Amino acid sequence: MSESGTQTLVAPVLMSTDRCDRCGAQAYVLAELPNGSALLFCGHHWNAHEEALRPKVVKVVDELHRLSEKP
Ligand SMILES: [Zn+2]
Predict the structure, then answer these.
(1) b/e per residue, 41-65, with b = 16+ CB within 10 A?
(2) CA of 63 to the centre of ligand 1 (A)
């Protein structure tokens, strides 16, 4: 298995059961805080909060690309 760049994630982290903390839509972004807790966001709310959250979180799992994938 080969990996490119800094992206080592191969399998989706977020499941269809993961829901946006703000609106309950399916979550595509997970933002991990320094205290270990994680926030889940749909695309809409991630876009709305990304700028404010980026400096505060230690890790971001962004699977928004899956929104445009067709099964
Ligand atoms: Zn949302």
Answers:
(1) bbbebbeebeeebeeeeeeebbbee
(2) 14
Which pLDDT score, from 0 to 100, does residue 66 have?
87
Ligand 1 geometric centre to CA of 19 (Å): 8
Are 39 and 33 contacting, i.e. CB atoms less than 8 angstroms apart? yes
pLDDT over 90 for what percent of the chain? 72
> In this predicted model, what pLDDT tens digit does every residue of 29-57 receive, in sequence order?
999 999 999 999 999 999 999 999 999 99
Taking Cα atoms as reference points, which of 54, 1, 4, 7 lies closest to residue 39?
A: 54
Give residue 24 CA to ligand 1 midpoint distance, Å. Answer: 6
Q: How far is the CA of 20 from the centre of ligand 1 (A)?
A: 5
| Single pTM value for the model | 0.78
